[in-house]
């Protein structure tokens, strides 16, 4: 009779992981995730990708967009994971690998240099890369798509394995590489279509895919969109590919150079079955992408333990200090700071009082 409540307490204690302030990793990442505008948003990084077409590292006429660069950076960091060996994945090793031919383009140094000021003893570069995907997919969608976000990634101190698929890579090598990273054929097709709904293939960097005719005064890097809504995270890339409309799946499907049609080889590798499935609806496409992208972001070395999913904290102390003072009122304790209250659900423009 007396045992019962004790057992219940033990069970409850084990099945709920309640947020307890302070938790420095959680507090920092939650701050970057939630305080994007308004109160306490001084360092928010969403401005770099607002609007979604914005390029934060240079001239808007270059034909580049930061939100898409962030997503591609995460893919290149993830792609060399070896889940059986427990190595690679989201560990920011991409920072040591930017001079490799498989990592052509300005996306990686652009992104990492923008993230660098946010990295501190609690927030790793690898967590910033993951958070940037959550943020870019959120900003480039309406209603906002929210990929669940965990923290705790650990940065590599040296370069990792080679093997990011390139436009020239044959289909079997590509599928083998993704399989090593834990993604089977439908997963690979899905994840690639989810990535290639944003952004461009550029003549600068990929002249073998996109010809010089893409270069114009407003698009000096010669970026060609994957789909007709370059800045919307939507199923259109799939539909345009299947229907042969708009961008028809983009340059990696349509390039005159057959050798570099990597998306065409991938999408047709199961006779378009996965692409036809994804075309079912925007809602289905988004739900598949959320799941695949969360798996990509959570592919980490076996030595890394990720935190619980970071959800907005409804009532959160901000910059709380407890000071001992001695002045004309005599010795006393001063408790100062703010309490942040989320007044609306996070996905509906959370505001603070
Ligand atoms: C077989 C696999 C893949 C190949 C061969 C491939 C190749 C490429 C190439 C050549 C570009 C053009 C980059 C540039 O010109 O700046 C590109 C862009 C891009 N890729 Fe992939 N990709 C693959 C899979 C993925 C995956 C799985 C994702 C993310 C989940 C992804 C996300 C992106 C994004 C967002 C862009 C646009 C970048 C920008 O506009 O700056 N890709 N990809
Ligand atoms: C909390 O402290 C940080 C670091 O000093 C500062 O940047 C931020 O503006 C403070 N927030 C508020 C609401 O005062
Ligand atoms: C951006 O580049 C265009 C030409 O491509 C140039 O006319 C313009 O002055 C540049 N803007 C800035 C802010 O550098
Ligand atoms: C990226 O930056 C690093 C460090 O500054 C540098 O060593 C590397 O060459 C750069 N990579 C590219 C492609 O510019
Ligand atoms: C087609 O792409 C391959 C692989 O990048 C390259 O070697 C070849 O020169 C390209 N052909 C043309 C006509 O650009
Ligand atoms: C897959 O769809 C593309 C685009 O409609 C088409 O060109 C191709 O022939 C199809 N391939 C297969 C094997 O179904
Ligand atoms: C969220 O904010 C945007 C931009 O200010 C606005 O267009 C939209 O209607 C808001 N959504 C809600 C649910 O208030």
Automatic annotation (TrEMBL):
Q: Where is the signal peptide?
A: 1-17
Look up the domain of life of the source: Eukaryota
EC number(s) from the headed UniProt entry:
1.11.1.-
Extract the InterPro entries matched here: Ccp1-like, Haem_peroxidase, Haem_peroxidase_sf
Note whether Transport occurs among the keywords. no
| Keywords, alphabetical | Heme, Iron, Metal-binding, Oxidoreductase, Peroxidase, Signal
Output one GO MF annotation: heme binding
Q: What class of enzyme is it?
A: oxidoreductase
Which residues belong to any copy of the Plant heme peroxidase family profile domain? 123-347
Give GO BP annotations, semicolon-separated: cellular response to oxidative stress; hydrogen peroxide catabolic process; response to reactive oxygen species
PANTHER family assigned = HEME PEROXIDASE, THYLAKOID LUMENAL 29 KDA PROTEIN, CHLOROPLASTIC-RELATED
Family stated for the protein in its record = Belongs to the peroxidase family.
Q: What is this protein called?
A: Peroxidase
């Amino acid at each position: 009779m007396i045992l019962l409540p004790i057992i219940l307490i033990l069970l409850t204690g084990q099945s709920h992981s309640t947020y307890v302030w302070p938790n420095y990793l959680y507090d920092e990442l939650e701050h970057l995730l939630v305080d994007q505008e308004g109160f306490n948003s001084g360092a928010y990084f969403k401005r770099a990708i607002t609007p979604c077409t914005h390029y934060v590292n240079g001239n808007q006429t270059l034909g580049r967009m930061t939100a898409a660069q962030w997503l591609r950076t995460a893919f290149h960091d993830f792609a060399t994971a070896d889940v059986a060996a427990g190595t690679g994945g989201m560990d920011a090793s991409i920072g040591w690998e930017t001079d490799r031919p498989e990592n052509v383009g300005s996306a990686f140094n652009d992104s990492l240099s923008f993230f660098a000021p946010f990295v501190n003893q609690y927030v790793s570069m690898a967590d910033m890369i993951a958070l940037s995907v959550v943020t870019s997919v959120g900003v480039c969608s309406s209603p906002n798509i929210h990929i669940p976000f965990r923290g705790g990634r650990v940065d590599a101190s040296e370069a990792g394995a080679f093997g990011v698929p390139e436009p020239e890579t044959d289909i079997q090598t590509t599928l083998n590489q993704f399989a090593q990273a834990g993604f089977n054929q439908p997963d690979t097709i899905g994840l690639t279509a989810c990535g290639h709904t944003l952004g461009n293939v550029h003549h600068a960097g990929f002249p073998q895919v996109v010809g010089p005719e893409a270069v114009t005064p407003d698009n000096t890097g010669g970026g060609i969109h994957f789909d007709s809504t370059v800045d919307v995270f939507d199923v259109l890339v799939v539909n345009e590919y299947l229907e042969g409309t708009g961008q028809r799946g983009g340059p990696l499907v349509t390039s005159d150079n057959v050798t570099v049609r990597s998306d065409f080889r991938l999408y047709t590798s199961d006779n378009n079955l996965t692409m036809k499935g994804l075309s079912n609806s925007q809602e289905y496409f988004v739900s598949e992408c959320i799941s695949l992208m969360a798996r990509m972001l959570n592919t980490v070395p076996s030595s890394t333990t990720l935190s619980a999913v970071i959800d907005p904290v409804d009532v959160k102390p901000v910059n709380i200090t407890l000071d001992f003072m001695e002045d004309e009122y005599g010795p006393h304790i001063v408790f100062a700071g703010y309490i942040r209250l989320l007044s609306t659900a996070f996905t509906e423009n959370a505001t603070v009082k």
